[in-house]
Every structure is written in C-alpha cells, then in structure tokens.
Amino acid sequence: MKIAIIAHDKKKDEMARFVIAYKHIFALHQIFATGTTGLRIQKETGLKVTRFQSGPLGGDQQIGALIAQNEMDLVIFFRDPLTAQPHEPDVSALIRLCDVYDVPLATNMGTAEVLVRGLVNGDLDWRTIIKDRKE
C-alpha cells in the first residue's frame, strides 16, 4: 500500500518514534512524506521514502493530488491542533480529499496505531477493491 506521512513541526518527534516502533510494518509498504518529515524518517529508520516539498511549500497539495488520482491508500498526519498553521487551507483540503476518496486518515497516534496494525491483519484490503472498481 502507498502510505503518506506528514507531521507538523511540534509533532515530528512523535512521528519519528511512531515510525521507528512500526518500522517492520512500514518496510512492507511504499512510504511518501512531506519534505522535512520524510528526511527525518529516512535518517532515523533507513526506510526508503519518496519525499515531496515541505507542507507549507506545497507538499500537502502534492499528496492531495495523489489522493485525487486514487494513488494513495492511507494518510498519517500528526497535526498540531494547538498551533496556528500558515497553510491551514492546504491541510483542510487534504483532509477533505481523504473524505471524498475514502482514504483512511489518522491525525493522532491512537488512530494511526489502529490503522497501521490493521495493515498487518489485512483490514485495509478493501482499498484494493475500491481502486479496481474506480479504474
């Protein structure tokens, strides 16, 4: 599956710890990430990560474009709800696209853990069925 990983600045440490903890699962999938988050994940885990621009420079929109093309299966986006983000409209658009295209979205560690563990169990295999139907 294709998994997008995004983290606001104050959530990057948490995201790094999360990916390290589930490295054995992420290693079985294609990982995409916004710039700084992707670089950090690469350095700390050794995983191959396709990196886009940083979020404020268009990375969220690049991932959104893949969602709109039915090329993304899961988004893990650790948001910082207590800090104003200058690119909030891009964040809102990304969340909306996940809803429109039925892409599972985790915005916190608890939900991310359920989804990532679900990958192992085959709980997200329905994404393949939907992709086949839409093509």
From TrEMBL:
It comes from the Bacteria. One of its GO terms (cellular component) is cytosol. PROSITE patterns: METHYLGLYOXAL_SYNTH, MGS. Residues 1-135 form the MGS-like domain. One of its GO terms (biological process) is methylglyoxal biosynthetic process. Its EC number is 4.2.3.3. It catalyses: dihydroxyacetone phosphate = methylglyoxal + phosphate. Transmembrane segments: none annotated. GO terms for molecular function: methylglyoxal synthase activity. It is an enzyme of class 4 (lyase). Gene3D superfamilies: Methylglyoxal synthase-like domain (3.40.50.1380). The active site is at residue 60. Keywords: Lyase. The keyword Lyase applies. Substrate binds at residues 8, 12, 34-37, 54-55, 87. PANTHER family: METHYLGLYOXAL SYNTHASE. Belongs to the methylglyoxal synthase family. Catalyzes the formation of methylglyoxal from dihydroxyacetone phosphate. This is Methylglyoxal synthase.
